[in-house]
Design a protein that fits this description.
single chain, about 325 residues, Helicase, Ruva Protein, domain 3, Zinc Finger, Delta Prime, domain 3, 5-stranded parallel beta sheet, two-stranded parallel ribbon
């Protein structure tokens, strides 16, 4: 089942004996868990019938004993097991799953990994009519669309450059992204429902002009002055622009440019799929591939590795990270 399907059932008053929520992406696991915790029982019922346990601090025997209790002055009791992946002997829960109590709703919050579908416990939960939800990690190229859809539900918009700036800074952690988007929505002026790079700069502290995304664009377009202006800013503000993060960003970018040279079908749809990027930015990689032939691209990738090692002290006597970055960008551009 999907998160929306489970929430829809809860909203309609349909409850299941188990909710097995697992996967690499914690956002939807927590979203469903929090919704169930807030909406299954009334405030009066929660006092005696809602229990929240944590896998690290709970053993299976205590969990099973709790699940076998009957509710008090309510039709159901709710037990939420958070961080179930940390529980020892978790699989022994099968002793309860094979004969669950109809009046108990057990929510299993199993994060940072998928529970093995081949195990007897998984099949027992399925046989008992439990809801099974898989929450896979979202690929980076899918995150911009996720952000736009998330904002659309809240009647807000975001321009494409702002999306990429946000993803570049926050990565693919949907929970972190959602938290920042909530702040940005609150900060939007009355009558304006569109998030721009300027909105992000004002409220999150990411510079709309001096960031790794803009550096990639400058290098792709071979804009020497702009690229140098950005790295000079980085050199003067190293705490806000970590060298390691810039190196990772450039390595990822030029690795995709190298892949571009190897792929025969260079249609936008195919390249977006191969490179795992938004189709909106395909033209940027196409331009970079024109400006950097396969040999130069391979050379840039080797330089990135070399300068990363030098930043860690290998073969580097005195240059600081700012100087290393300036030297590297000069080589890339010339």
């Amino acid at each position: 089942m999907t998160a929306n399907e489970i929430i829809g059932e809860i909203r309609a008053g349909k409850f299941r004996p188990f909710y097995m929520l697992s996967g690499e992406e914690p956002y939807y696991i927590d979203l469903v868990t929090d919704y169930i915790e807030a909406n299954v029982l009334t405030e009066e019922e929660k006092a005696f019938n809602q229990t929240v346990l944590y896998g690290k601090d709970t053993d299976v025997a205590d969990l099973i004993n709790a699940a076998r209790r009957f509710p008090m002055m309510a039709s159901h009791q709710l037990i939420i097991l958070r961080e179930a992946q940390l529980m020892k002997d978790f699989d022994k829960l099968i002793h309860y799953a094979e004969k669950p109590l109809k009046s108990t709703i057990l929510v299993i919050n199993y994060k940072y990994g998928s529970y093995d579908k081949r195990k007897k416990l998984y099949k027992a939960i399925q046989s008992a009519g439990g809801a099974l939800m898989e929450s896979p990690r979202l690929y980076e190229n899918k995150v911009p669309d996720w952000v736009k859809e998330w904002l659309k539900k809240r009647k807000c918009n975001i321009d494409s450059n702002a999306v990429m700036l946000l993803v570049e800074y926050l990565g693919t952690d949907l929970g972190k992204i959602a938290n920042e988007l909530e702040k940005l929505i609150i900060a939007l002026p009355e009558g304006n429902r569109t998030i721009t790079p300027a909105t992000i700069e004002r409220n999150i502290g990411i510079s709309k002009d001096y960031n790794n995304f803009e550096l990639q664009k400058a290098l792709a377009q071979k804009k020497v002055v702009k690229a140098n202006r950005i790295i000079n800013h980085f050199a003067q503000n190293q705490k806000a622009n970590p060298f390691a993060l810039t190196m990772y960003s450039l390595y990822s970018f030029f690795s995709k440019v190298f892949t571009w040279h190897l792929v025969k079908d260079k249609s936008p749809k195919n390249m977006a799929s191969v490179l795992k990027v938004s189709p909106y930015f395909i033209s940027e990689y196409e331009l970079a591939a024109k400006n950097y032939n396969p040999r130069k691209t391979a050379l840039i990738i080797s330089w990135l590795r070399e300068y990363d090692m030098r930043s860690k002290g290998f073969g580097n006597l005195s240059a600081n990270e700012g100087d290393l970055l300036k030297e590297l960008v000069y080589k890339i551009l010339h």
